Amino acid sequence: MSSEKNRLLDLLGISIPILCAPMVGAAGSSLATQVTLSGGFGLLGSAIHTPERLERELEEVRQILGTDRDSPLRVGAGYIGCWLDGLAEEDAKKLIKIALDNRALAVWFSFGNDLQKWVQFVRDYDSSTGRKTIIFVQLSFLEDALVAAKDWNVDVIVAQGVEAGGHGYGAAPPLRSLVSSIVSALPEDGPVILGAGGLVTGGHIAEIIKLGASGVVLGTRFCLTPESMYPDPYKQALISAESSASVRSEAFDQTGNWMQWPRGVDGRALRNATVDDFERGEDVQVLRSKYKEALPVHNVDRVIIWAGAGVGVMKSVKAAKELVQDLYQECLASLAKS
């Protein structure tokens, strides 16, 4: 898989077409940089950071990568559109501008009712500075991908299937169907296409690449790394879980009481007592109280542990750099057999 045949590798200047999703609460400076140092590409889960925390994490990235302030920072910053929409517009722009001023190589937008506004803000910033920021948008429907490709001038479309852990659209198609439809509908010189959702093995990655995607984005698999910010009890719960334990539910957002998500968005995480009680109709305020009590002590029977549909295949913690390289070798071996 040479860079001549893979537009993603050329676009990001990487050697391995594996990216770490910008997971809030899991993907910090340590995980993002180790994925980048492996030859892949890491993104910070910066969606709900304060400006001060985002500045601090970007500085940590700079130190780990040994990058001076005049050079591009080889990580991305992920933003949730509905979180930005809930801020005063100038505050939202300030948060994005922190990544741009720090010369993050890429920004990622997802789950917003007007993502085009934020895409345009980045393009206007680039025009004023003479720089080029790579823009990712995460989408789950062919119709949205066509609009993003035609009207938004994005560089990368991340096709998120219904198997994905964390937030997503419950009505999204399975990943393989989604990738196939987007690849077939977009021109070859359109945005780079990546697949995300339930991918945890090199064989899974090879399947998505064979469908025409340039690479993949992994989330849950990277939670089982020493560099992940997931607490150890969460990691043990992921290791112990079968894939059937990964369920889509509104229980997670009703209990966590995060933010107002776009219509149709719910979450995929491990089934536990929170989900069971929600499905039995227990009062939401009671569930929220139990959730708040569980957070400080990492009570896995009550907290939200985001997990994609492939969680049952994950049975060990592995360093991020080693994980990326092992997955890539497995992917190449699988592709060689086809």
TrEMBL record:
GO molecular function annotation: dioxygenase activity; nitronate monooxygenase activity
- InterPro entries tied to this protein: Aldolase_TIM, NMO
- Oxidoreductase: present as a keyword of the record? yes
Keywords for this entry? Dioxygenase, Flavoprotein, FMN, Oxidoreductase
**Which domain of life does the protein's organism represent?**
Eukaryota
Q: What is this protein called?
A: 2-nitropropane dioxygenase
